[in-house]
Amino acid sequence: MNAIIKYFVVIAIVFVYGSDATTTLLNTNSFPPNFTFGVATAAYQIEGAWDEDGKGESIWDRFTHEYPHRISDASTADIACNSYHKYKEDVQLIKALGVDYYRFSISWTRILPTGYLNNINEAGIQYYNNLINELIANGIDPVITIYHWDLPQTLQELGGWPNSELVTHYVNFAKIAFENFGDRVKTWITFNEPKQICKLGYGDGSLAPGYKSSGIGDYRCVYTILKSHAEAYHLYHNQFNTDKQGKVGFTMDNFWYEPGSTSRADEAAVERVFEFYLGIFANPIYGTGDFPQIVKDTVGNRSLLQGFETSRLPTFTTEEVARIKGTADFFGLNFYTAVKIGNNEADLSTVSWDSDAGILYWWDPSWPSAASYWLKVVPYGIRKALKKIKDTYGDHPIIITENGYSDHGELDDYDRVNYYLTYLSSILEAIYEDDVKVVGYTAWSLLDNFEWVHGYVSRFGIHAVDFNDPNRPRTPKLSAKIFSEIVSNRTLRSTTVQAPDYANMNAPSGIMLVVLIALVNLLSRI
Ligand code: NOJ
Fold it and tell me: Per the confidence metrics, is the pTM higher than 0.70?
């Protein structure tokens, strides 16, 4: 027996005996024929080149440079994955995965360095043209997110998203994107995770630009974003979608909300959180055109009781409601985890989004955790959330525009692999058991990248990036291999994968291993 065979037999034995055999059965249905797979990134998180070739300053450039202590490892994305220079290599990684599309965002200040139309940066437009052309030449559809959190600092000087003048500036930017890339890009996402933009950027101040105006500024931000989205949607369909092939959607983040107890109060809190966190965006676009009634009533009443002259929640005019209603061709959903929700007695002394919602949240300690404190592995949550969305807003095509798992950058990322497998299995159940129209799935992320205030501490990539090496080399992780297997088979393997667990090999297995190795040695003499 030659040495190579012997080597593989030993490896196989280690795998069999070095593990305890607990795996989970997965759904064995195939993904439907038109179901597509992709991977995602965002400009600020991967591009680097923060001030090259004419790019202007964004709120994230300012935030990371001015407040390094607010980033876990005091890092910036000045270089990040250096994808501005390495995009061709990235495209080859995407091609090797065999996915249908690549979801990336365009940096506003790379295209409009001042945020205004007075300076259109041809080098920025050229960069995205090069990326788009490279993708298409390699058989990958480009999917553009127009806004993924990197507002021009100049527009922040006007007050940022709470100022509804930003509608005009956003639409000007979107128009440039449609004009320059619309001949080749057919799927557009106007905004990524508006709740995080508003609630964390202008509410509790934990994300850039770091303003604390919860219950006031954050709601004004919601109002501006919904109007901006609707105007961009109409602009695209009226002026650019001449071949009728194009689609525009809106991507919201949503957790699966589970009642903290069986009390009626906690169950009602779950209903409220759904409306305050998702409905506040989804109801205007996919429902009635307006904010959910419970959100309008609660914020309106509390505002008056607190002595405000009018509701802290802006009011849409009848024309605005008509303009916003129905402005999406698909429902973009970023989904990661579940959370427990409890009722929080109304406290009028606090003005904030969460005290309006009247909720508290926490995570069940039995849920396994990823490296991000908020990311618990709860695969059934995605099926339940998908069904709830369908039951509430109707049968829209849903694209899962992000789903992924954070660790500390391991190459043998078994936990990430099993996260993908179990969540995808749950998505298949939503499709086949609950008849939810899920049409696409996007893994977050193609690369380890700058995870906002968590810097490079928690990593979501299916490819590792060595941030200590100036060349930023990329290395596929086990998850890249398994993800590409899923994409090409269009079905999952029958069970989750088992990580070898050398440390916990029990004595009989260890003895068995020695006996088997002796056997292999014996065989090798034959
Ligand atoms: C949501 C955001 O869209 C993305 O930028 C972020 O990195 C991932 N989730 C993981 O937190």
Answer: yes
